[in-house]
């Protein structure tokens, strides 16, 4: 009952309330309250995550498992961010209330937290993301093979888009007049045509399918049919 | 016989709902401008029902009715046969191969929280992967980007171990939260893949840019890769770089398919009824629009 | 030891060589800043801006007195409408927005041209920001080194990123959600005097308090997961989260995707549009008609591909095949567009290395 | 085995061997393809396309001095593509005298907004006053629930601005009760939550209340095309869209200071050109190598 009954009840009740809140102005404010709760619970999940992160890494350090020194770096970085952020070290005072220390803005570039963000976190995430340019190149070489008709279609489309989205389009087909009967030979016209008419049709059908899939999944949860998230009774 | 009956009733429901869908669409178009009108909205603030949204309510009701009809038909004993989904059949093969090679299995449930339906579907697929892994005694690792997903994954994997009759092999420590930050998580995963060399990698959930980082690293270490996502922008990369991919809606269907429960399989049928209905209304809509276009061109001149 | 079946390469802890290299690198950065007069590499400049606030009081016509912190040059103080409060010290602080090297040189040149005049802006090289650029450059290269192969420098960057980002999200969630939405209704007085001085008193403090207990309880149940026993209770908040999502999704999937996308797919298959030479005349528009036809065929065939209760055989199979072709075109175009984005990301990182760090761009 | 290999020409042999090339050579070629044009300053003129012009017109369509809500739904990882768009959007709106509120659905979006305010808004339009002409609301966790909340009660999601002032006390925001009090919404978006959610939860519910313009990464653009132009009046796709829009904005409203900050998008098109050619070359080479090797295998069998 506590393990399965109550969670299903909570789920169905919250879901139904939010559906009702969309149609009935009377219950609209209840919906707002639920959404507020949601953001609080979502913020508390960060504490759970941090707790688990600490447990795992401290265990690694204390048992001197291989690579424990890296765990120490993780913990030190984590602790530094918490100290900088919670204590608002170096934060600029709030202009309207300069005497209330914790009213200051901790994220400006004057604060320690802001420095960590600007020079540690931001370059690391952006570079991690930039690795994709390399992976995209190796995938192009390795995976995009014209094995069958389907793969050929994909490749030709990709070629058109790749060429049309740079100055190459102008160089290759720029000489075809825009208002001639053969305007569709122009790469930019082809690319727009493919994107706006063909790819959009495919995307539209995918979107409709996904909408139905999402609706069905939501209903399965609200009706208590899908219980995969629940523990064993 | 029974199957044919179910089909007939499904068709009846479909045609009935097609009619109401058309009505709903007409309503939605008529009613929408009224809802925006400031005065009307303010007046409606205390009402128990926002009449401006009646059309939407109807549409939601019809769409939900399709799904529920599918479930009801399944309960009444209608067929719940589903077409072959190759990527699903690959799960057992991939886990089996990892066991043979004595290497771990990696399951990545995407980078979104439990508030994304895809993550939820991914966790359902995890249930099946975990059960197979427990049966084969393969080592399954699930690093997550959200602590709630970790919570859900632990429950699911533990249940799977019970279901496989191997509760003693369940270890919570293999399912861990890493960080919420997308690329922090990816940096960790890339490193982990290169170091641990999992033989099978599953990517099931909401994926964004990391799809290709994972798929390329997985390929470099020679893992069997099975992916599933409803994020259309990432599908081309998974399709190209992984061995099997659940495309969009297939992914949602997969979670129901794997459960093997009649109710859930029925809901997939319900989705099909919904699609039939949508297709029917598109055909009707196109016919009407074409007629209107021709009438305007020839009647007008 | 760990699982013998997973030989993890280089799981020995950071190599001393890498650590020493890192140290030397940072030392070089500081040396560049302090020892060499001519900076060839990164040097960041900031504009020192001083701020001051004094507490002032204003007594209105109704005799009600209000205080506020204002700039000494504020019009309200200059006009005498607001009077500085006696015995309260002014508060001063400095902000340091970044400026480009060009701006710095322009100000220096101006100073050199007019010696003796007081500078309008105080621009100076900032050691802490210069160090920052070096750290950022080092970390950028550390991540790129993964392309060569997994190595201790990458592992350091990876561990750092995991720790910093986990801390970042936690601090962010605390100040943006927990303080205004949980702590404020639970302890309005404390929040008002210490955390959010501008918080307005609620008209229903009792109700707010009671309502805030719900997410607090759910959060507590969630954290129970960290306890050695009874972690299953965390499915209660989990059910709440999934319920919220499911409720929102039921509406949004129909309202935003299903209905409008189906409507958009309904197009006239024969399109007539005004003629170029005579706008009053309607003529058959070949391209528009083709576009509608392609659009409708595409949507319908892909929908058929997604039918699960029918095997892909016969007519259904053929239509599904056409659906796959449409899907492939969609994927091809997605691929092309994505490549574009990925390359931009790389250009941006290179711009940082070349321009901000090496100064060769 | 090698002694059974039929005689093959040197070109074909090379192609076959190319198939097993170390991926690091490919990585290096990509690095050079981006770095060399960047260092040599390769650049091309831009001709604005249909969508970029539509986006420009969408912002022009709102009367001067209107209220604009900017949502910065991206982080530094997507800065390369999106920052040029954000710069051009903010400069365009400021040149039209619009009042701007900045918010973020991504935690790091707040910093991105902060940087844009400093480097574009205040640097080019020093007459903008905080609280009267622009306001920074900061990040709010909750994804689409935030948008949904904004449509019913703005202050329920943003009771305070980043300086801790209740929004009721801010002149710019004092008469904003719901999202519908804004005339234009501009989202610069890298994924979830972002442009798609703004369509789903704001534009679909109140289609006539505001104009919606979005700047999107290339990846996400494919998902957004179906919404343009009915559910989204303006859409910029990838750095190409940014470069085109920049051209339009800079021509209509030349920035008084720092014109180089409105050239970032165009500057990035040079490396783009070379890298795209490299990509095509790689795909062709990869396929050539596959066909060369396939013939050989056939001979062995």
Structure overview:
- Chain A is 70% helix and 0% strand.
- Chain A has 233 residues and is an all-alpha fold.
- Chain A has three domains: 1-86, no CATH class; 88-132, no CATH class; 144-233, no CATH class.
- Chain A is extended, with a radius of gyration of 27 Å.
- The termini of chain A are close together.
- Mean pLDDT of chain C is 82; it is low at 1-14.
- Chain C has helices at 16-34, 75-78, 101-113, 127-148, 152-186, 188-195, 205-223, 235-265, 286-305, 314-358; strands at 45-59, 65-70, 83-84, 91-95, 98-99, 122-125, 272-274, 282-284.
- Chain C is α+β, with helices and mostly antiparallel strands and 361 residues long.
- In chain C, α5 (152-186) packs antiparallel against α7 (205-223) and α7 packs across α8 (235-265).
- Chain C is extended.
- In chain C, a hairpin with a 7-residue loop joins β7 and β8 (282-284).
- Chain D has 301 residues and is of the alpha/beta class.
- Chain D folds into two domains: 2-41 and 270-300; 50-265, Rossmann fold.
- Chain D contains twelve helices and six strands.
- Chain D has a six-stranded parallel β-sheet, sandwiched between helices.
- The radius of gyration of chain D is 24 Å and the shape is elongated.
- The interface between C and D is large, with 44 and 53 residues.
Q: In brief, what are we looking at here?
A:
Chain C is an alpha+beta fold and 361 residues long.
Please tag this protein with its features.
A: mainly alpha; 3 domains; 70% helix; extended; C: 361 residues; alpha+beta; two-stranded antiparallel ribbon
């Amino acid at each position: 009952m506590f393990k399965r009954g109550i969670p299903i009840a909570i789920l169905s009740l919250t879901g139904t309330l939010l559906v009702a809140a969309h149609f009935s102005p009377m219950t609209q404010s209840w919906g707002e309250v639920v959404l507020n709760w949601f953001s609080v619970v979502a913020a508390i999940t960060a504490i759970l995550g941090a707790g688990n992160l600490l447990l795992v890494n401290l265990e690694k350090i204390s048992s001197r498992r291989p690579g424990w020194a890296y765990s120490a770096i993780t913990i030190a970085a984590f602790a530094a961010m918490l100290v900088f952020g919670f204590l608002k070290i170096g934060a600029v005072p709030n202009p309207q209330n300069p005497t209330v220390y914790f009213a200051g803005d901790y994220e400006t570039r004057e604060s320690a937290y802001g420095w960590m963000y600007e020079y540690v976190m931001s370059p690391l995430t952006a570079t991690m993301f930039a690795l994709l340019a390399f992976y995209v190149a190796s995938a192009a070489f390795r995976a995009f093979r014209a094995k069958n008709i389907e793969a050929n279609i994909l490749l030709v489309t990709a070629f058109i888009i790749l060429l049309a989205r740079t100055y190459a389009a102008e160089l290759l087909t720029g000489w075809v007049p825009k208002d001639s009967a053969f305007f569709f030979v122009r790469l930019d016209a082809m690319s727009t045509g493919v994107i706006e008419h063909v790819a959009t049709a495919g995307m539209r059908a995918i979107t409709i399918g996904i909408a139905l899939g999402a609706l069905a999944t939501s209903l399965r949860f609200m009706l208590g049919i899908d219980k995969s998230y629940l523990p064993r009774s | 016989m029974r199957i044919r009956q179910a089909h007939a009733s499904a068709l009846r429901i479909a045609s009935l709902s097609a009619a109401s869908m058309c009505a709903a669409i007409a309503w939605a178009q008529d009613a929408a401008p009224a809802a925006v009108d400031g005065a009307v909205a303010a007046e409606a603030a205390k009402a128990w029902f926002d009449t401006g949204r009646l059309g939407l309510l109807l549409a939601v009701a019809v769409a939900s009715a399709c799904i529920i009809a599918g479930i009801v038909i399944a309960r009444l004993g209608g067929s719940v046969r589903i077409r072959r989904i190759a990527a699903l059949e690959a799960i057992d093969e991939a886990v089996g191969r990892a066991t043979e090679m004595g290497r771990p299995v990696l399951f990545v449930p995407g980078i979104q929280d439990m508030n994304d339906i895809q993550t939820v579907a991914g966790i359902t697929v995890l249930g099946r992967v975990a059960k197979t892994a427990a049966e084969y005694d393969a080592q399954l690792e699930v690093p997550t980007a959200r602590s709630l997903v970790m919570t859900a994954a632990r429950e699911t994997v533990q249940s799977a171990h019970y279901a496989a009759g191997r509760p003693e092999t369940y270890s919570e420590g293999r399912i861990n939260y890493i960080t919420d930050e997308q690329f922090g998580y990816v940096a960790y995963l890339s490193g982990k893949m290169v170091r641990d060399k999992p033989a099978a990698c599953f990517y099931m959930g909401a994926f964004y840019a990391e799809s290709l980082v994972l798929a390329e690293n997985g390929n470099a270490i020679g893992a069997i890769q099975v992916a599933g996502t409803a994020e259309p922008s990432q599908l081309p990369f998974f399709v190209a770089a992984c061995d099997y991919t659940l495309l969009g809606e297939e992914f949602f269907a997969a979670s129901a398919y794997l459960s093997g429960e009649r109710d859930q399989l029925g809901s997939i049928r319900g989705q099909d009824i919904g699609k039939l209905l949508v297709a029917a209304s598109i055909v009707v809509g196109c016919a009407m629009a074409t007629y209107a276009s021709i009438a305007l061109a020839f009647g007008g001149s | 030891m760990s699982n013998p079946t997973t030989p993890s390469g280089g799981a020995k802890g950071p190599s001393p060589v890498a650590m020493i290299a890192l140290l030397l690198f940072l030392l070089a950065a500081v040396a560049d800043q302090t020892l060499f007069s001519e900076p060839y590499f990164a040097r960041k400049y900031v504009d020192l801006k001083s701020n001051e606030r004094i507490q002032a009081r204003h007594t209105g016509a109704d005799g009600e007195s209000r205080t506020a912190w204002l700039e000494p040059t504020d019009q309200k103080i200059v006009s005498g409408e607001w009077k500085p409060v006696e015995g309260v010290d002014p508060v001063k602080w400095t902000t340091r927005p970044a400026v480009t090297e060009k701006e710095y040189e322009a100000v220096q040149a101006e100073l050199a041209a007019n010696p003796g005049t007081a500078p309008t802006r105080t621009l100076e090289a900032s050691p802490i920001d210069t160090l920052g650029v070096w750290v950022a450059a080092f970390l950028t290269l550390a991540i790129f080194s993964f392309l060569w192969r997994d190595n201790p420098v990458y592992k350091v960057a990876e561990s750092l990123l995991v720790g910093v980002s986990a801390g970042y999200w936690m601090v962010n969630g605390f100040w943006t959600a927990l303080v205004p939405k949980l702590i404020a209704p639970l302890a309005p007085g404390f929040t008002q005097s210490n955390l959010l001085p501008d918080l307005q008193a609620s008209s229903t403090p009792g109700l707010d308090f009671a309502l805030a207990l719900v997410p607090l309880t759910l959060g507590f149940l969630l954290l129970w997961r960290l306890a050695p026993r009874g972690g299953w209770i965390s499915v209660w908040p989990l059910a709440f989260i999934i319920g919220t999502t499911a409720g929102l999704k039921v509406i949004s999937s129909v309202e935003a995707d299903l209905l409008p996308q189906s409507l958009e797919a309904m197009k006239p298959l024969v399109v007539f549009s005004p003629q170029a030479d005579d706008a009053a005349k309607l003529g058959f528009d070949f391209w528009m008609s083709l576009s509608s036809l392609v659009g409708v065929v595409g949507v319908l065939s892909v929908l058929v591909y997604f039918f699960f209760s029918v095997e892909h055989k016969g007519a259904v199979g053929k239509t599904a095949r056409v659906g796959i072709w449409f899907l492939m075109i969609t994927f091809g175009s997605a691929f092309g567009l994505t490549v574009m984005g990925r390359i931009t990301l790389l250009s941006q990182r290179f711009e940082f290395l070349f321009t901000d760090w090496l100064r060769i761009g | 085995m090698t002694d059974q290999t039929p005689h093959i020409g040197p070109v074909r042999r090379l192609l076959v061997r190319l198939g097993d090339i170390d991926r690091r050579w490919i990585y290096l070629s990509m690095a050079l393809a981006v770095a060399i044009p960047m260092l040599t300053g390769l650049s091309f003129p831009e001709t604005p396309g249909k969508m970029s012009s539509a986006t420009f017109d969408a912002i022009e369509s709102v009367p001067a001095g209107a209220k604009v809500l900017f949502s910065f739904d991206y982080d530094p990882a997507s800065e390369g593509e999106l920052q040029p768009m954000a710069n051009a959007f903010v400069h365009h709106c400021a040149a039209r005298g619009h009042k701007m509120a900045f918010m973020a659905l991504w935690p790091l979006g707040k910093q991105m907004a902060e940087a844009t305010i400093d480097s574009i808004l205040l640097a080019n339009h020093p007459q903008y006053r905080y609280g009267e002409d622009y306001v920074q609301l900061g990040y709010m966790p909750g994804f689409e629930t935030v948008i949904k909340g904004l449509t019913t009660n703005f202050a329920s999601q943003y009771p305070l601005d980043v300086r801790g002032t209740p929004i009721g006390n801010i002149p710019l925001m004092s008469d904003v009760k719901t999202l519908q009090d804004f005339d234009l919404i501009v989202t610069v978006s890298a994924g979830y939550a972002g442009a798609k959610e703004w369509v789903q939860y704001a534009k679909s519910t109140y289609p006539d209340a505001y104009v919606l313009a979005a700047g999107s990464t290339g990846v996400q653009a494919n998902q957004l095309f179906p919404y343009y132009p009915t559910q989204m009046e303006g859409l910029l796709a990838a750095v190409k869209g940014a470069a085109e829009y920049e051209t339009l904005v800079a021509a209509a409203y030349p920035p008084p200071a720092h014109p180089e900050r409105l050239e970032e998008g165009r500057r990035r098109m040079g490396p783009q050109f070379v890298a795209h050619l490299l990509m095509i070359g790689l795909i062709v080479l990869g396929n050539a190598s596959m066909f060369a090797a396939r013939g050989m295998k056939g001979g062995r069998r």
